[in-house]
C-alpha cells in the first residue's frame, strides 16, 4: 500500500451549518476542537438539520480571534459573531436522533438572528464542558463521549473514494457534501473500509462503523440546491444492509495536534464490506 497522507481537516462548529477547512486542529475527548459544539434547536428541543432545511448550508461558520463568525455565503454583510466561551446560564434539553442531552443558550440576541434567518423560532445552544453525551454503547470501547455530532467524534474519507464516485456521475460533487473531519490521499477507493485501527500524530484511531448516508449529501453546499445525486448513484454500488455507506466513523484515544500532511500508520485491518 502506498503512503496514506492526511490532505484536509474540516470542522463544523455549528451542527449542520457550513464547515471550515483548517491546516491543523487539536483533538479532544469529544473530537476536534470546536467541532459541533453548538447546535440550533427548535422550541421542542429537536436539532435543526440541512436534511429538512437546506438553506443552513449557506451559513458559513469560521473561528476567528476567539470568536465564532457566521456569515451568509451570498451576502457577506449578513453576519453575526459571538465569543467562543459565551453562554447564558439557561439550559435546554437537546434531542439528537435517539439521544437526549443538554445545551446552554449562547445569547437570546444570537438566537433571534438565527430565528429571523430560519423564519421560525430557534435557539443556538452550546455544549458545556461538563456535559457527557456518550457514544452508542454497541460501538464504544472505553465509554467514549461525543459532541452534537450525529453519533461519533470523527469521520474519515479517502480522496480516492470521492474520485471513483465522480467518475460515475454526470456532474462531479465536492467532498463537502459528505462533511468529513479527515480526508486522506493514497490507497484505492474505499480503502478506509479496511481500517481497523491506525495512528496519526501520536493519536490512536479506531474505525468502528461505516457511515450510513442520507439525503443531506444531495444538498449542494454552495447553492443549497437539492437533487437526487450523489445518493442515487451511490445506492447502486455502496448499499449494505439497506444502507448506503460512504466513509468511516472513528473513535480515538489520546489528545494532541493533528496536522495536514501527517501520515496514517495502519496498525490492523479488516475485510471490506463492499467492493
TrEMBL record:
Highest taxon in the source lineage: Bacteria
Pfam families: MOSC (PF03473), MOSC_N (PF03476)
MOSC domain sequence ranges: 86-267
MF terms (GO), sorted A to Z: catalytic activity; molybdenum ion binding; pyridoxal phosphate binding
Protein name: MOSC domain-containing protein
Organism of this sequence: Pedobacter agri
